[in-house]
Amino acid sequence: MPLVKTSCPSCPESERVFNALNTDVIDAIEEALKKVLEEYRSGKSSLSIEFRSRGRYAYSGWYINHTVKTATARIEIEYYTSEIDSETIEKLNELIENFQWEIECLIDDVINETISARGYRVIDVDADDGCTDYIIDVDGARTSIGLCIDTFNNRGCGFYIDTVSYPPLKEVQKIISEQIDKIESLKNLAKEYPNVAVVLGLRNIGYRDVVKVMRLGNSRVVAVPLEAGKHVKRYQATDKIVCIEVID
Predict the structure, then answer these.
(1) Residue range 77-90: average pLDDT?
(2) What is the pTM of this model?
(3) Residue extents of the structural domains in the chain
């Protein structure tokens, strides 16, 4: 039953089908993944990696499906665990894990390069649940910008699905640049209120952007959703707690 399909215009053979999963086929999958990585590196294509399993079946073990997709390429691998030796399965899993790691390294490089090109320095990184915050130094204040990757996973009786979708690198660059633009606008805003430190935490999730506003030396933080096309709505100071509602 093992079935491997690779389809990518830049591959040595644009479409290939294998009814086996062995060392030679693993090599063909690796070659196709390299071509897909090159396509993603160009910056224009999104990419998704999906893993599905069903079972366990009495005689065939687990049904496994790996799918890697871009705008023009698709690699699909399916097999039952009873049909493939454990060493081959381990090699395949390692190959896909390394491929995913390279994708995430490309994204990290683009984010760091974009931040550096705008004159800022990353001083810390915090990651959780598919989101990564890059903490940067803005005039002595810790300010976070970041990126969230679309993920989906579902587990039930006898099945498991895990999917991760990566935006094009050019879109990543745009997202980070837009967040830095907002930081620049808030830096100017903060000059109007010298007793207030404006700390901005941005991610491309939910309302897309969240502003964190805090008083200098005060750990109290107020999170405010941003709405497009507007600026400062309210400035308020009561008892030593100073906060502003910022609508961008």
Answers:
(1) 84
(2) 0.73
(3) 1-112, 118-148+168-248
